[in-house]
Design a protein that fits this description.
The structure holds three protein chains of three kinds. By secondary structure, chain A is an alpha+beta fold. Helix content of chain A is 11%, strand content 27%. Chain A has a single domain, classed as Alpha-Beta Plaits (2-Layer Sandwich). In chain A, strand 2 and strand 3 form a beta hairpin. Chain A starts with 17 loop residues before the first strand and ends with a strand. Chain B is α/β, with parallel strands linked by helices. Chain B is 29% helix and 17% strand. In chain B, helix 7 links the parallel strand 6 and strand 7. Chain C is of the alpha/beta class. Chain C is built from 13 helices and 16 strands. The longest helix of chain C has 18 residues. Chain C is globular. The chains are: A alpha+beta, B alpha/beta, C alpha/beta. At the B-C interface, strand 3, helix 3 and helix 5 of B face strand 3, helix 3, helix 4 and strand 10 of C.
């Protein structure tokens, strides 16, 4: 008989990945898609602007350790301007 | 981490012409996302980048050819598909992908689109559908919803749009899907599937076009259109091809997913029986 | 299916078939076309013979697709060709322009018929000759040949492929329905006797993106890397720099387009072909090409028999226009007659280069200009 339920996660053993955000600010066009769709709300729009005048993202206060390296910002950025790498913990 | 680190290069720079970044597309335009899905799929395809060819037509989506670090061909309006057909038939070892827009592929290129589908030529077609002719400033095209505003439709578009999956089903297409730039994971995966499946594949990717379409039609920016996709997209399950039309402004669900997946033999210039 | 590319021997063959055999003998590996009278027989023969020699024949949905497919196949490394007539040539023009801009070697056969528009599908014309030169928008150079016999349909198709490959340019074969449909003796030599000019290829193995439009030689022809060889090329119809990247500047545009035109101009010595008949002491020079030249030759012979010092310069290549040969003629000939099956197209080139008015013997198309008409013009010129 096949069981279709999900295997329960053992919270004590489970490791959540941690990510480091990398930016190429000169490529950013301020579309804010990465900010909006980060599942951990890691990003916010910075006050700094690049040479074209666009406000690129920065890490929101208190969110320094919130990135789980899901890779969605990298996937969804139209400008090839942001990505994450896994941080060893 | 304490802060975002400023990087000199992006992991995908090896497969894009990084010396030409930033690209020309508007803030909030989704073409870059579609290109990224395609680039990622190439790297995961197990096919060397030397064998991957991209052919594009005219329009904003057609500019993708210029940004991919592959043998790339930016051809005439509507003629990317026959150009790609010639290339593939002359060298069947190549993995030839046509990357173009809704206007280039379905209006001026419409005839070539349906014949390539009918023949089941072994090329992959990625159609970025942003519901207008973006490059020339936002005129209506064959996928613009009826009543939508465009620069050549100041009183609202008087024409019914194509339902592309239905059109291609009627043309006998082998593999047809639709995703959006929000569904980037699925789009990338589907492009990868298409690489592994001989025959004609058509992957429509809905994309925001804030300047050409959104601005005149109540969608303020790319982000808002992505939210619209999030709210209204539904994976099609048992939906008839006739119901796969899209109207961004109405409350109907936008069906996405893989609609057609057959196993027709890919086009050969001579029928297999004659080769014996 | 095994077959021979070169059917060495003596044949009794139509011009269209001779053209197709010429393509095969030249190593043509790809044909994409659409049926149109009077060129359909070329497609029909290649449909049968291409699979025999492991080449590709595809009948596309229209002429626009055919020309696009020819360009793609050529850039993938195959010698590629299409065949059409006037209405199809009109449809192909945009992509011929792309071929000129991307510098794609390819051969376009136009078996001319009565034009304009649908015209006389089954009868000859020679009224596409200016369209062949100027048809696509913009400035560019083109090479074009005008066969006068089935034998020349064979020989000039081979020359067309050679010129296309050597100079990285689309080459037109401007035949006509008479030459295409007539049946005459065609001698096909052994394969080793067939001339072959190769494409200029990259000098080094792939090492990063390759500049497909960098012409460092005097002939202004850049080396061509094919798709799939690892050279990471970019080809665009937009104005581009030597790397092939779009460059929207007036300076780059002028430099690029000037090179495209000059490249073909410099090829003239190698690609030009003419035939002289009784020209050495000719006072009256008749200039003609294609099927009409056959009548012109007869008219000149008759004139000579009556003591008139007439001669025929038969243009075998139409573009680049054999200006040097015509100007040379102008030194000793005192009048010019141009016989062509249109209402005066190549006559403009003749007058331009001789700087003197020429007599025209014209017909809009549909019937061979009889030798008598040309002979009358010679007589008038002589009196």
């Amino acid at each position: 008989m096949k069981a279709f339920g999900r295997t329960p996660v053992n919270l004590n053993a489970a490791r959540f990945p941690r990510g480091q955000v990398y930016l190429l600010p000169q490529r950013c066009k301020g579309c804010r898609i990465c900010i909006q769709f980060c599942p951990q709300d890691v990003l916010q729009e910075s006050h700094s602007a690049n040479a074209k005048g666009y406000h690129y993202p920065e890490i929101a206060p208190g969110k320094e350790n919130a990135c789980i390296h899901c890779g969605f910002c990298a996937l969804i950025c139209p400008e090839f301007a942001i990505y994450t790498l896994e941080v060893e913990t | 981490m304490t802060a975002a680190i400023v990087a000199e290069a992006h992991p995908l720079d090896a497969i894009i012409r990084a010396d030409r970044m930033p690209h020309i597309w508007c803030p909030g335009c989704g073409i870059g996302i579609a290109m990224r899905c395609y680039a990622q799929a190439i790297l995961e395809s197990g096919i060397s980048t030397e064998r991957h060819i991209v052919v594009s037509g005219i329009g904003c989506s057609g500019r993708v050819a210029g940004y991919m670090a592959l043998d790339s061909y930016h051809t005439t309006h509507g003629r990317a598909i026959p150009f790609a057909t010639g290339m593939k038939l002359a060298n069947p070892d190549l993995m030839v992908t046509v990357f173009s827009g809704d206007g280039d592929l379905a209006a001026i290129g419409g005839n070539h689109l349906i014949h390539a589908a009918r023949r089941n030529v072994d090329i992959k077609v990625i159609c970025v559908n942003n519901f207008n002719y973006g490059m020339t400033g936002g005129q209506f095209g064959p996928t613009t919803p009826i009543g939508a505003r465009a620069t050549t439709a100041p009183y609202g578009n008087p024409e019914q749009p194509f339902n592309l999956p239905s059109l291609l089903a009627a043309a006998g297409a082998n593999y047809v899907s639709r995703w959006t730039t929000l569904h980037a994971r699925q789009a990338k995966q589907d492009i990868l599937t298409a690489f592994g499946k001989p025959g004609f594949a058509f992957i429509e990717i809905l994309s925001p076009c804030p300047v050409g379409f959104g601005k005149s039609n109540g969608i303020d920016d790319g982000l808002e259109e992505m939210e619209l996709y999030r709210a209204r997209c539904v994976i099609a399950d048992g939906v008839s091809h006739e119901d796969l039309g899209i109207d961004l402004r109405s409350d109907r669900p936008i069906y996405i997913g893989n609609f057609i997946n057959r196993n027709l033999p890919p086009y050969q210039p001579i029928p297999p029986e004659a080769l014996a | 299916m095994k077959g021979q590319r070169v059917l060495t021997g003596t044949h009794f063959m139509s011009g269209d078939h001779a053209c197709a055999e010429g393509a095969l003998a030249a190593g043509c590996g790809f044909f994409a076309g659409y049926p149109i009278t009077p060129s359909t027989e070329i497609a029909e023969l290649l449909a049968r013979r291409m699979p025999e020699v492991a080449g590709v024949f595809v009948q596309m949905e229209d002429e626009l697709g055919s020309m696009a497919a020819v360009l793609g196949a050529s850039l993938a490394g195959a010698r590629s060709m299409t065949a059409t007539s006037g209405p199809g040539l009109s449809l192909m023009l945009e992509n011929i322009g792309l071929g000129a801009m991307l510098e794609v070697p390819c051969v376009v056969v136009d078996v001319q018929r009565g034009s304009p528009s649908t015209g006389l599908p089954t009868m000859a014309g020679q009224s596409d000759v200016m369209q062949a030169r100027w048809g696509s928008h913009g400035d560019y150079g083109i090479v074009a040949y005008a066969p006068s016999s089935p034998q020349e349909m064979f020989d000039l198709t081979i020359l067309a492929f050679n010129a296309a490959d050597r100079y990285r340019v689309p080459v037109l074969l401007l035949a006509d329905e008479v030459v295409g449909h007539m049946v005459e003796r065609v001698v096909i030599p052994p394969p080793d006797d067939l001339p072959r000019w190769e494409r200029k290829r990259p000098a080094h193995p792939p090492n990063g993106p390759f500049s497909s439009f960098l012409a460092e030689d005097d002939d202004l022809v850049p080396p061509l890397a094919h798709a799939g060889e690892g050279y990471c090329v970019h080809f665009t119809g937009l104005t581009h720099d030597e790397r092939g990247y779009p460059d929207m500047s007036a300076e780059t545009h002028h430099r690029l387009v000037t090179r495209l035109v000059e490249k073909v101009r410099r090829s003239a010595e190698q690609v030009t072909r003419t035939e002289a008949y009784h020209l050495d002491d000719a006072e009256i020079a008749v200039i003609s090409y294609g099927c009409t030249a056959r009548s012109a030759r007869r008219a000149v012979r008759e004139a000579r028999e009556r003591g008139i010092r007439a001669g025929l310069l038969r243009l075998i290549s139409l573009w680049p226009f054999p200006a040097a040969q015509v100007r040379e003629l102008a030194h000793h000939a005192r009048s010019f007659i141009v016989a062509e099956m249109n209402l005066g197209q190549m006559i403009r080139e003749v007058e331009r280069h001789t700087q003197c008015p020429a007599r025209g013997v014209f017909h809009a198309g549909g019937a061979m200009i009889p030798p008598e008409a040309i002979f009358e013009a010679i007589q008038e010129a002589a009196s």
